[in-house]
Design goal:
MetI-like fold; 289 residues; mainly alpha; globular; 2 domains
Length: 289
């Protein structure tokens, strides 16, 4: 066996090992969702004692857990769904508009301020939210806005979600030939028209990718709404699930699993539908430039 054949054999072996490792990791992640699915159809007692068993026979609860979870307490479940949808849509739209404009400015203006701003945004990606949550909440409270409502909490999401979006947008804008924007300026377009008529259409792949990532983050977030929102008046799905408690802190695990399943199904379907755009956007934005 010559050197070339040995190299090809080693490459095939490495690919096989990597495929096996990734397959095992995928099974572990899928198993968590599968366990939620199984236990959402079990009676509460058997969720605790027979967690890994199939919901058959006396364990079977049918759709009682779903009905119990949606009717628990005096706060309507569909109201929580409405607030989650509202917060997710508004936050994502605000992040896309503001960060795309900021990224275009950073990529085109070669100044020390823009470079420092860009590196600060990139640095914010590695800072855990738990490190800044109290500072962020205090800063939000100091603003002359009622930030404890679903209509204004997107401002807080913008502050913490801008790092990833700007990082991806800047990478893509740098790959756009400057001559295209110069031609638009010669034709009489000002900065605003150049951005919305020329740059935004070319940003579409990265915009879709950023939108998907931000939607998944905001929809599943629990900590920030719990810190900022008036939870007696406004509850997202994640907060609603947290309130499935009885007296002395007892939790109906069957109903909890049922609501968790209802909350993750839209995200899973949305991600599976749009995952190809994530790959395209990351390849077009974060890699180029």
């Amino acid at each position: 066996m010559n050197q070339k054949q040995r190299t090809l054999s080693a490459e095939r072996r490495n690919k096989t090992i990597l495929s096996v490792v990734l397959a095992v990791i995928s099974v572990v992640y899928v198993m968590t969702v599968f366990m939620v699915l199984l236990n959402s159809f079990k009676l509460n007692t058997f969720v605790k004692t027979d967690t890994f068993a199939l919901p058959t026979g006396e364990m079977w609860a049918g759709f009682d857990n779903f009905i119990k979870g949606m009717t628990f307490g005096n706060y309507p479940f569909f109201k929580s769904v409405l607030y989650s949808v509202m917060i997710t849509v508004l936050s994502t739209a605000l992040i896309l508009v503001c960060t795309s404009m900021a990224a275009w400015y950073i990529a085109r203006v070669n100044s020390l301020f823009c470079k420092a701003l860009y590196f600060l945004c990139v640095f914010s990606m590695v800072v855990p939210f738990q490190m800044v949550m109290f500072t962020l909440s205090k800063t939000a409270d100091s603003l002359p806005l009622p930030l404890n409502t679903p209509w204004t909490i997107p401002i807080v999401y913008l502050g913490f979600g801008a790092g990833l979006a700007i990082f991806m947008f800047v990478g893509f804008v740098k790959s756009i030939p400057l001559e295209i924007e110069e031609a638009a300026a010669i034709d009489g377009c000002g900065p605003v028209r150049t951005f919305f008529n020329v740059v935004v259409p070319m940003l579409k792949p990265t915009m879709i990718s950023v939108a998907i990532l931000e939607i998944m983050w905001v929809w599943n977030d629990y900590l920030l709404p719990a810190l900022v929102l008036d939870i007696n008046e406004y509850r997202t799905i994640t907060i609603h699930i947290q309130y499935l408690k009885g007296s002395y802190g007892t939790v109906d695990l069957g109903a909890t699993m049922a609501l968790i399943l209802l909350s993750i199904i839209p995200v899973i379907v949305f991600y599976l539908t749009c995952q190809k755009y994530i790959i395209k956007g990351v390849a077009a934005g974060a890699v180029k430039g």
